[in-house]
Design brief:
alpha+beta; 5-stranded antiparallel β-sheet; 40% helix
Length: 181
């Protein structure tokens, strides 16, 4: 009986020490991680709305899958479009993307975090795919074959679900921006 109590006491002490170490590690890394995430979001906003030198947050009453919206301001402080963070449901889970919109036209798209299949849906994060959106307007649709028209996006081979999810997210950003003007 004594041996069991000794072992239980030792395990309890080890668990308390391990818990304190984990808590300390979290406390030390929490702020740097938050800063890095904020910097990455800012870089994505600047990438999709190059004309903007600063951004001001726009409060959305019901943005659907649009999580955040920022109005881009040029050097003179004039509005020059919107940069929005949108979440789409892809094949492997949520896809976070940033979409830039100016005067109803997509100025850029960047794919952030995702859990799509490597070599297939993960190719949505390649410029060859997301670059198709730049300059497009209206309601966009996905095509599997052929030359994409003015409002069409070529799907990634064997990743139609991911392609459709990203396209739907861009459509939501376009709709949201249209409601803000």
């Amino acid at each position: 009986m004594r041996d069991i109590c000794k072992i239980a006491l030792r395990l309890t002490i080890l668990m308390v020490i391990a818990g304190l170490c984990l808590g300390a590690a979290y406390t030390v890394t929490k702020d740097p991680i938050a800063r890095q995430e904020a910097e990455q979001k800012e870089m994505a906003r600047k990438a999709v709305l190059e004309e903007a030198v600063s951004f001001e947050e726009v409060q959305l009453t019901d943005g659907g899958n649009v999580q955040e919206c920022y109005r881009g301001l040029d050097a003179a402080g004039n509005p020059c479009g919107y940069a929005m963070s949108v979440t789409a449901k892809g094949f492997g889970g949520d896809i976070q993307l940033t979409v830039g919109v100016k005067d109803g036209v997509v100025t850029g798209v960047r794919i952030g975090t995702h859990s799509e299949t490597p070599g297939l849906g993960a190719r949505a994060a390649e410029e060859k795919f997301y670059g198709q959106f730049t300059g497009k307007s209206g309601t966009l649709s996905v095509i599997k074959n052929g030359e994409a028209g003015d409002s069409e996006i070529n799907a990634i081979t064997a990743a139609t679900i991911t392609s459709t999810a990203v396209t739907n997210a861009v459509n939501e950003a376009l709709d949201c921006a249209a409601g803000l003007n």
